[in-house]
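My current task is to audit a protein record that another person submitted. My question to you is simply how this chain folds and whether the tokens agree. This is what I was given:
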Amino acid sequence: MRAYRLTLRACAVGLGLCGIVWALLALRALPDFGRMRDLADRVASGDVFRPDLIRARADMAARVAQTTCDTIYLRSAILVEARAAELAVSDADLTEIDPRYDAVSRTAERLLDCAPTQSLAWLTLFWVEASRWGLRPGLLRLLAESYRTGPNETWIQVRRSPLAMNLYGQLPEALQKDAMDEYLELVGLYQFDLVVGIYARLDDATRGVVLSRLSEVPTHARGWFARQISRAGLPIDLPGMLQKPDRPWLYN
């Protein structure tokens, strides 16, 4: 009887140890969701990483994305995979561009399967298709969905506004209004480099629309905008707005 009990105890201990080992191995096999989110936040903030690191993390993100509905992870994966696609484009790596676009599109589609109101996913699909094929019929629906599902999220707006304003003259009236409203809102939020960079790439007609509606922006932000545009060497005609303010430290 004693030997029998010892045997049972040994079996129980063995099973317990096996369970611990299995749990540790399982934990090691799980993707590090927190690390992916941190990387995505830094990529979105403009931090620069080694291309090989971005590519490796993007490959992992693309695999994991198809196994989860964690929206935070999927949004992070999109940002990292999009950066890998941008690297492929900037390197003119023709063997890499299409696979990267395909991967980030699949992740965006996965996010929409899990959460159809995710504006980033709609915007990503629009960006990929417009980058590949230009502005084709039916494509604007994706941009419209991005505005509908995320009209006032600044972290989405700073990604969407450069795309939409660059295509402003080709957009239908409703999307032109969405794009211009968003741009002026970013001016009012003092998004320094972003709004000046966008303005620099606009054609004269679109710049004219910006200036005609700039009165909708608070005076302080309007004055700041005019001075920043002037500093960049770009033409702007806003009488009185180029004068130095009474408290210049607020605007420099």
